[in-house]
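Researcher: Next sequence.
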Amino acid sequence: MPRCDDVLVEDRLRELSVRLRGPARLKSDLLTEARHGLLDAVEAYRASGLPAAEAERRAVAEFGSPAQLLPAWQAELAVGALRGLSVRVLALAAFLTVAGDLTWRGSSWSSDGPHPPAGYHLLSQSVNGIWLGALALSVAGLLLVTLAARSAHPAGAVLARLVGAALTGLLALGVLAGAALFGWSIGLWDAALTWPPMIVGMVVVGAGYAWVGRAARAWLLATLTPGRPVPAGR
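Model: Next structure:
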């Protein structure tokens, strides 16, 4: 049986890939950079006269164990995930804040029809407030990502985690409140499902929710699961 330290380059990269969680592109970049560094070290050892397998083992041992590498790499992936989440929420929140009211133009209460109940107005204002808050938090998230790139102070990581959690929570609340508002609008306005702006708005907002939801999932995985055990036999 091989020794526990008898690990070659591709074995180590595969192990790291299995345990890392975060944005696919950034993860791929980290592993590509690691591969290049390891192969350069292998070539240096081979140039000194070592056999190929021994050169790989020494390069991997010198590179570091997963326990040494994963914390810093996973932290970098978490920052990248927060960047992706913040950008997507910023885009969606800006769209909903600026263009959201266009969906309801032509409704029965936009002309001479009966006005919706006070609870409907409260829900509508709450949705606007939620997305304005998400807009502010996404800007804060991008600022923290910029600061994290310049400083390794632990307070930055804590603040980034708090902003990401608040952003994810507001996103979930915004999706629920927005869905409730759409459903209530359809119940109050008989022609809602035949009004083109309403139909387009439902499709675009639904796609936006799914788009941002994927980023929120990536952030949660990168932040809450810093690495799972390698399956047996890998």
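Model: The mean pLDDT is 83. The longest helix spans residues 154-188.
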